[in-house]
Amino acid sequence: EAQVTQNPRYLITVTGKKLTVTCSQNMNHEYMSWYRQDPGLGLRQIYYSMNVEVTDKGDVPEGYKVSRKEKRNFPLILESPSPNQTSLYFCASTTLGGTQYFGPGTRLTVL
Amino acid sequence: DQQVKQNSPSLSVQEGRISILNCDYTNSMFDYFLWYKKYPAEGPTFLISISSIKDKNEDGRFTVFLNKSAKHLSLHIVPSQPGDSAVYFCAASGASGTYKYIFGTGTRLKVLA
Fold this sequence. Notes:
The complex is a heterodimer. By secondary structure, chain A is mainly beta.
C-alpha cells in the first residue's frame, strides 16, 4: 500500500530539547516536503527536497532543519524547539505530476 | 501576504444539493491548482487538480473550474453527501517543476442530512 508515515504522531516536549520527526514514503518519489498547519493560517511549507541531498527552504523555515540522505526518508529536526513551534506537522511526498500524498500528521506541543 | 485565499471559513449545505467552495489567488505565475480534503486527525488527501491550460476538470461528483482572468477557482460537489463534511484546502503552484505549493486557509464544509 502506497503511504507516507510519520513518527511520532503526538509529542509533548520542553523548550530547547532537540527533537526529530521522521517521515518515510514507499512510493519512490523524488520530491518531499514538510508543512505546518496552524489555525487561520492553513498549511505553510517549511522545507522541501527535490531529491537526495537537495533541499530548499519553504515559506517558514526558521527554527527547522531537514536532511535527505535517502530517497524514502525526510526527517524534520528542531534543534532548539520554542513554544511558537507548537503546531500540527505534515510530511508530503509528491508524484512527478505534482500530486501530493500527505502523512497522518504529528501534533507537537512545546512547553 | 496571502497569495491563495479562501474567504469562507465555513459552509453548510443540505444533503443532495450542490456545494461550491471558492478560492482566489493573486500570483499570475501560478499554473497548477489542487484541492485537498481533510478529515480530523488525518492528513489532507488529494481530491482534484487543474492545469492553467484548462478551465474545467471533472472527476465524478467533483468539478473544478478555473477562471484565469479573475484569478479564481471553485470546487463544485454534486450531489453533496454527509461524508463530504471535511475541511477543504485549495493549493497553487507556479512554473511546472518547482513543486512549491501555497495553500489557502481552508473552508469547513458541513453537509446536513
